Amino acid sequence: MGGTDPAGPVLDRDEVDRALARLGAEHEAIETSLLALQDHAGRRLLEGAELTGVTRERWATTEASITLLWTYFDAYAGALRTAREIRARRRWSSREDLVELTELLRGESVTVAGAATATANVPGAQGGAGRLSESFSLAALVDRMNDLYATSLDMVVAADAVWSALPARIDLLAAELQRTRRLAHSVGVRPGEHPAGDDLERITHTLARLREEVVSDPLAFWVPTQGSSAPGGGRPDTTVYDREARALEEVRREIDAVLGVRQDAEQRLIKLRDLLSRADRTLAEARTARGEVLAKIAATEVPVVSGPPTVLQEQLATAAEYRRQAQWHRLSPLLDSLEQKAEDELLRARESLTAVTAPLAVRAELRGRLDAYKAKVARHGLAEDPLLVERYDAARRMLWSAPCDLRVAEQAVLRYQRAAAELLGSARVPPQGGPQDGDGRGES
């Protein structure tokens, strides 16, 4: 605490007047600040709140600080009033007045009764144990008040900032949560029946607990700004709020998806029935074709055609039942799964039909090739050649008789092609494909 050396120089009249003017301005500034703190909305809320945790502890300290601030201010105002009275005794102050004023303005002349006891729980205060009073210079008293004011205002502003930011946001989120809960209930998303319903229940409890904690212990949700000395430097901690807001958004998207299912469920069910019906018809066609192939084609492997999977029809019936019972939350994943399975089933049926009818396609290609070469040799006037007639008849009997041995028939067609090529003067006969002229250009 900085006092004035009693042996120091005595202030002259002008110095006294300047000191009194400065102290008067400080008095007005301090009084204005204290009144503003007294009327601060955060302080009034702290006085009326049922506080817990760190906020309760810090508010008890801050209340003591505010009370001590007024005690210090009263002592400061009394000392300033006394100094003004001494200065006002006479226009030209005597040396005795100037000595008294110097001691009052610079020395530890302000005694605050009970200050040592009052500062016991105030951070930064330095009351001595067992002392009933404490003495200050006016400058030291101003410094002490400034320190107490800054720490008190910091606590009040922090609590007020949290109360101003978080409860209102929590209430808005809770209102949105209630709307989502009603919407979820309308589509059958309920706790214990759907994960989104469980999420909504958890978010509801978390928000209620969060609001209660924010109201009773706001400083637990305050993050001070590192290195900041300004009162109220920091921000509200919204970590829990932000996490629950994101969780609610995820649930809302899931509910929207379920709503979409409700709106287009009938069309999706119709499409599913059509896909499965087409798959069944394709498999039936493949089974019929297999019988035809086995009857008409010899010495070939024909794959077995399986029947339609009954499990898909059962799941389709279950989906229709879910729709009748408005169990949209169960219908949604079932439709997604069924749509993929139905597409896969139709593809499998088409592949089965292609695999089964492959021998018939080979026979048709051989028939077309044989007739194309016959037409070609006819254009060149060689249709009645005995060798060609003999080989054509042999190949045709094989291709148009049942069962047809494709390997033998293909060799017969190739023999006819070679004979025709030799007669036409062709240098090369391609083993596969349609007939070609000697210049390599095909004829239609």
How would you describe this structure to a colleague?
The chain is mainly alpha-helical and 444 residues long. The protein has 4 domains: 13-157; 162-262, no CATH class; 266-356, no CATH class; 360-424. It is built from 12 helices and 6 strands. The strands form 3 sheets. The chain has a two-stranded antiparallel ribbon. Strands 3-4 form a two-stranded antiparallel sheet. α8 crosses α9. The longest helix is centred in the middle third of the chain and has 58 residues, at 239-296. It starts with 12 loop residues before the first helix and ends in a 20-residue tail after the last helix.
Numbering strands along the chain, what is their spatial order in the largest sheet?
1-2
Global mean pLDDT: 83
Assign the structural class, choosing from mainly alpha, mainly beta, alpha/beta, alpha+beta, or little secondary structure.
mainly alpha
Number of domains: 4
Tell me the number of helical segments per DSSP (H or I, 4 or more residues long).
12
Order of helices and strands: HHHHEHEHHEEHEHHHEH
- Number of DSSP E strands: 6
Hey, roughly how much beta strand do the residues contain? under 5%
Shape: rod-shaped
Unreliable runs: 1-7, 433-444
> What's the Cα radius of gyration?
50 Å
Distance between the termini: 117 Å
What is the helical fraction, as a range of percent?
over 70%
Q: Largest sheet, described in full?
A: 2 strands, antiparallel
